[in-house]
Amino acid sequence: MDFQNALTGFPLDRINTRVPNGSYTIWHLLEHMRIAQWDILQFVVNPKHVSPDFPDGYWPPVDRMAIVSEWKKTVTRFKADLKAISKLVKNPKTDFFAPIPHAPDYTILREVLVVADHNAYHLGEFVSIRRILNLNPVKEY
Length: 141
Fold this sequence. Notes:
This protein is mostly helical. The protein has 4 helices and 2 strands; from the N terminus they run αααββα.
């Protein structure tokens, strides 16, 4: 299931529902995914990028609740950054194995795999939480 299918039909009145036995909401989870993906993209393309503090900078504050416009902004920004990563991957000039000039211990391949792994993990978590909360995605796979 891709990101769009996982979010399809999500009831916007439930974006601040807490994960059972957890400290974060559904929106917190999506915002975490967005921040991590954005950080990795910026790390690859912007030599002056400074990553957020870990771990606090990768999650919204636990007491922060989102409004619908923030949910939509999170989704839009996640999709835009994913599109930029996809464009980088599809670019025939991208050398996946060369060291990143400003971070010679890292390669684009490594960073792309980190994004894919992180997104897959949390997307699976998101879908599982939807099912636990009986907020099932419209399309089953």
